[in-house]
Each structure stands twice: as structure tokens, then as C-alpha cells.
């Protein structure tokens, strides 16, 4: 009985719906059955999207190049900690987003999910003061960064040790390769270049458990073999010391950077 009542009610509903639908034409032999309304589904969880999609041809992402962050400024490879702090603060205050090199790789190639004002912070050589001076400042502002490590120098002559490397890696600072011995790659044979690139990558991946994607050429020196060796040993990007902002058309194995020197204002460096 209940079932019959329910069917009757449903038929009545259909008739009311079709009668009220002003678009039904009088000469239609049969009213089209009202479509079942699509039930409201639970909102699907979308992947976190923090940026927008842009044409990668137009991307110009500054990759800042620092070395040592120290009070003892002897040359233009050393930035005093108070200046570094002010520069990081300027980035945050002005809406810049520090991204890692792995993120940069994807953005340069696809142009997808690019945050507003992206910037990459890199340090060359793996100095101890990257850990003692730069790292606390990066943490203070919640900034990501990347360090190009000379693997043979780890824990030697003013370079941070494995414990510091692992701690910073865990925090989100990417450890990337600056070769094993910091030799000028263009002076080495192809096979020796491969050895430098392969061994340093393996050491860092063993220490961090994360993939090493980038190589920074010591003293910015490279040749055609270097680019081939980098690709052959599994790197996605190679960095020079040439000046400029990164775009994929620079060549993914010859990406330029912005050199940070003491006394430099971030505003003029980055814009
Ligand atoms: Zn170096």
C-alpha cells in the first residue's frame, strides 16, 4: 500500500513539474520526464593550489646566489648576517615566495602553480655559517632555501658537518651538488666530470634520502661535456654564475643567477 502511494506521489510530482515547466510545447505527444536532480555531492578535495598557471616562456625567476653569511667580511662572497636578515625580511614584507630548486624545475618547464613573486635562495660551497648564521634567519622568516654542497668538504675547513646537513634538509633546505672536489669542470675529461657529478649526487642522496636535481658548476666553469654529463647523471638543472633571472630558454643546464654582494639592496637585486 505504502509503495503504491509513493509511486502515485512520484507521478503527481512529475505532472506538476512538467506543467510548471513553461518550455513544454503543447504539441509534444509525451512530456519529457523530469530529470532527476543531481544529488549534492561532498566537495571533492582538490590538491593544494598556491599559485597560478602562467606561460613558461614569460617566466623570469630570480635565483639568488649567496656564499658565506658572516660578520667577517673579507670579500664580496661574504654577506653580513644583519644585511642577510634585512634582505630576507624585505622579501617577506614585499610578498615574495621562496621556492626550492625542485619546485623551480617544474615551474620553469610547465609554468604551472607559480606563486606570486617567486624567488629562489641558494648558497654555494656549504659553509659552516650557512648553518650557524643563515639557517636561524631563514627559520625566523619561514623561508625555504637550497645549498650547493661540495661533498668532499663536508665537516672540513669551515664547512658544516653531516648532522647540520641532515637537520637543515629535514627543515626543507634542499641539499644540491657543487661536485665532490670543486674543480673547474671544463678542465676535466668527460669521464671525470661524470665521476664528480655522479659521486656527489650519490653522497647527498644517501645523507638526505632526497633526490638531488641540481648541480652548480664550481666557479661557474663548464663546457659542452658538462651539460651532457649533467643530463647523463640524472640532473634536471645546471647553474652558472652568469647574471640574470631564470627562464627555460636559458637552457636548463645553463641557468643564470643573481649574485648577492655585501651592501646590496634586495630591491635593486631582484627587480
Ligand atoms: Zn663554489
From TrEMBL:
Answer whether the UniProt record assigns the keyword 4Fe-4S to this protein.
Answer: no
SUPFAM superfamilies given in the database record:
Glycoside hydrolase/deacetylase
- Cite the entry's keywords alphabetically: Signal
Q: Where in the cell is it found?
A: Secreted
Tell me one GO biological process term. carbohydrate metabolic process
NodB homology domain boundaries: 117-271
Q: Which intervals of the chain are annotated as region Disordered? A: 24-53
Give any Gene Ontology cellular component.
Answer: extracellular region
User: What CDD domains does its record include?
Assistant: CE4_NodB_like_5s_6s (cd10918)
Among PROSITE patterns, the record links this protein to:
NODB, PROKAR_LIPOPROTEIN
Q: Which GO terms describe its molecular function?
A: hydrolase activity, acting on carbon-nitrogen (but not peptide) bonds
Residues spanning the signal sequence = 1-19
Query: Superkingdom of the source?
Result: Bacteria
In Swiss-Prot or TrEMBL terms, this protein is called NodB homology domain-containing protein
Specify the taxonomic lineage: Bacteria, Bacillati, Bacillota, Bacilli, Bacillales
Amino acid at each position: 500500500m505504502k509503495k503504491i502511494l509513493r509511486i502515485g506521489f512520484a507521478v503527481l510530482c512529475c505532472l506538476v513539474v512538467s506543467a510548471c515547466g513553461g518550455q513544454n510545447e503543447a504539441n509534444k505527444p509525451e512530456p519529457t520526464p523530469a530529470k532527476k536532480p543531481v544529488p549534492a555531492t561532498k566537495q571533492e578535495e582538490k590538491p593544494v593550489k598556491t599559485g597560478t598557471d602562467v606561460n613558461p616562456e614569460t617566466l623570469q625567476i630570480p635565483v639568488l646566489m649567496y656564499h658565506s653569511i658572516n660578520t667577517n667580511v673579507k670579500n664580496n662572497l661574504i654577506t653580513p648576517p644583519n644585511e642577510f636578515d634585512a634582505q630576507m625580511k624585505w622579501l617577506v614584507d614585499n610578498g615574495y615566495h621562496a621556492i626550492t630548486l625542485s619546485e623551480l624545475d617544474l615551474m620553469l618547464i610547465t609554468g604551472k602553480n607559480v606563486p606570486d613573486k617567486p624567488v629562489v635562495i641558494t648558497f654555494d660551497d656549504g659553509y659552516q655559517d650557512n648553518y650557524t648564521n643563515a639557517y636561524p634567519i631563514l627559520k625566523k622568516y619561514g623561508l625555504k632555501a637550497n645549498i650547493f654542497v661540495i661533498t668532499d668538504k663536508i665537516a672540513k675547513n669551515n664547512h658544516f658537518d653531516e648532522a647540520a646537513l641532515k637537520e637543515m634538509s629535514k627543515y626543507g633546505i634542499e641539499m644540491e651538488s657543487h661536485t665532490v672536489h670543486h674543480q673547474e669542470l671544463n678542465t676535466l675529461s668527460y669521464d671525470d666530470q661524470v665521476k664528480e657529478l655522479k659521486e656527489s649526487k650519490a653522497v647527498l642522496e644517501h645523507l638526505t634520502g632526497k633526490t638531488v636535481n641540481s648541480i652548480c658548476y664550481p666557479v661557474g666553469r663548464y663546457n659542452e661535456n658538462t651539460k651532457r654529463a649533467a643530463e647523463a647523471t640524472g640532473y634536471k638543472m645546471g647553474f652558472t654564475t652568469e647574471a640574470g633571472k631564470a627562464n627555460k630558454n636559458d637552457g636548463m643546464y645553463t641557468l643564470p643567477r643573481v649574485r648577492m654582494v655585501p651592501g646590496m639592496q634586495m630591491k635593486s637585486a631582484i627587480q
